[in-house]
Amino acid sequence: MKINRTTQRTIEILNLIASSQDGLTLNEIAKELNMPKTSAFDILETLVQLNMLYIKEQRLKTYAIGVKAYAIGNMYSKTSLLLNSAGPIMKRLSQEIGTTTLLAKENNGSLLYTLKHEPAKKIIATPEVGEVAYLHSTSIGKAILAFSKHQLELIDKLDLYPMTKRTITSKNTLTQELLIIKERGYAIANRENEEYTYAIAAPIFDYHGVVSSAIGVVNLYKEEYQAEEDIKKVVEAAKEISRLLGYRE
Description:
Radius of gyration: 19 Å
Number of helices: 9
Number of domains: 2
Structural class: alpha+beta
Order of helices and strands: HHHEEHHEEEHHHEEEH
Strand content: 15-25%
CATH architecture of the largest domain: 2-Layer Sandwich
Shape: globular
Distance between the termini: 34 Å
Largest sheet: 6 strands, antiparallel
CATH class of the largest domain: Alpha Beta
Helix content: 40-55%
Strand order of the largest sheet: 5-4-3-8-7-6
């Protein structure tokens, strides 16, 4: 069956805008997707009329995800097998460790947070559902990269921005670390995404054995912190969710 080009372009535009924190202009969208501005403009204005997008910044005319798209995404979250399976396990993990638990997936070369559970007493501010982050500087992002079947393609496109002085900025160094992560089964971001955080993550696999997401916990960095027990809990939580999705090792 032939794919409708306009429909494909519409989805590409929505995905691109969803991965941007501040919204995107017509010029930025057309350039990123290598499409004529007139074609992009027609699709964008239609999506605005349908409340799938809205104009976030009138002066620059930046487009952002609208209420209708949010409602559709919210309905997905209610019916998603992954989110429904992960929710109770994330809540338990958050209570056991006493820190925020996050679920995220790769989206257009970035990390997109899809679910979050916080303990009763929140210690630090953490990303909200729908926010995006870098793959190379986060534990969840590195866990996904390490097990991704498209690892080489993803790494080739990555901009290894230095979030802190400890962030990996060499693709060779990143590749070597991903080999270690794949061998041991979990990833760590030790003050790599933020100066004061220590994060642990492990991959989640679907019934095809494809990494679909990763689960992680974020805590304040402490020099005396012994991470071994928390690592075991995160890895087991990821395996438990994977089993619920039909994955068998």
